[in-house]
Amino acid sequence: MEVKRQKEVYVIGHKNPDTDSVCSAIAYASLKNEILARMHQGESVERYQDFLVEGEESANAVYVPARAGQINTETNYVLKKFQQKVPEYMSAIRTQVGDINIRRIPGIAADYSLKKAWEIMRQSETSTLAVVDDDRKLQGLITISDIAGAYMSVLDNQILSEACTPIANILETLKGELVVGNADKRLTKGKLVVSTATLSVIDEFIKEDDLVILGNRYEAQLSAIENRASCIIICDGAKASRTICKLAEENGCAVICTPADTYTVTRSINQSIPVSYFMIKEGIISFRESDFVADIKPIMLNKRHRDFLIVDDEGCYTGMISRRTLIDMNTKKVILVDHNEVDQAADGVDEAEVMEIIDHHKLGTVETIRPVKVRNEPVGCTATIVYEMYMENQIPVSKEIAGILCAAILSDTLMFRSPTCTEMDKMVAEHLAEIAEIDIEKFAMKMFEEGSQLRKKADSEIFYQDYKKFVASDTPYGVGQITSMNREELLSVQDRLLAYMESAMNETGIPMIFFMLTDILKESTRLLFVGNDAKMLVENSFRKEAEANYIDLEGVVSRKKQLIPKLTAVLQQ
Band of the pLDDT at 56, cuts 50, 70, 90? Predict the structure, then answer.
């Protein structure tokens, strides 16, 4: 009983996401879902053939925008203005138990009979069932081996009472009719007696609280009741007389009539025992849907269990998986936007199946298990590329999507001041602004203002607002950047940031960290640096003498085009 889940493909940006990373993910996921919706409504597949990747025509596919970190205040302002939900946060894109095709077999109650449990196992083609309470909390598990063991206990004539077997279970197992008594009553004392001997022997053998199986013999029925049996089972479809029923009621004895013969009843009555008596209660291995497969795999391979129970984050049972599941499992499917380097990607990208890459940076180090579609263009913003894909597929851009795409371009190009900005970026932003009904300059000023407010932010929030890790000639280094239209505001956090950079360098083990304090209006940057070789690297890169821990760079505003290439070139020498 496996339930097909929607095939989620996560569209996700880099760690410490900026406005472009988040907004491009939202817009591209929206474009993908719109195209699939149109195809499902009957539009030609060929029209979008170049845009699709394998398997996307499935009716279960859905594209989910995601983020690999906390959004900054600038991005939050943009999303609120254009009424967009904050994308799902994914600290890692490693394959989780919840990604696997979990067998969603319902749990059973502890009072279920062994027979009912066996029937469910046969119908579900499973050898294990979870035993749960009314809140789906695990109480135990029952396996086919446990049921087989129960039949080996048939010689124990007190097992029905030891297991506190409900009368209802006996009725269900024997397909019987309760003539006298309460189905909710449980057998708690006495033994099982099969009445086949002479009356004198029966009279001597039956004791108080016994459960007696007998045929259509009035004297035997009367003897069992007079000896205060707790329940009698009349076989072969015989009916209990009025006198027997009256006496049974007066003596608190339940009366069951069944169409089965004495042999069948004797042979099958142990099947009415509740699973709680035989279920495993201790040492149960269960996993959460949020657990990573790589973490639980060694445990599963070292245990001889056929099935492992799965619970949700509230501890409620949801289904089960087996070792075979690990062979057939699907990894997370992702589309990377605004990055293509492993160090910038969400943790676990090497365990995921990368479907596409859409980026405007230099090609990096992400490895894929098979060829993928890559859209990489030398423009100032990923959002520009996403807009082009809307146009290529003749999908109109909504006012809301136009707003977030325009904001992404303005943010990444510093309102067209960055050297990374192209004529295409500017043309696209102006067109999107018309659709979104915004004034570019007024909107950009407000957006940058909302994104600044540096004095109100914690040191870590400022540092990780837009921080990326790079590697050149096996030398790792980190570069962060914040922008503002107020130089005084930028300089006010300089000392705080330098102290935090030292701490971050020691914690991460990265030998050098740089941080750009970029003044949008003056188109300049004060570059802070920490690390033994950082000052020498900066001076060699810009052929300019630096202060103890910073250097002022006129005309430098782009990390991608003006800083990283220079640092990389010197390191490679």
Answer: very low
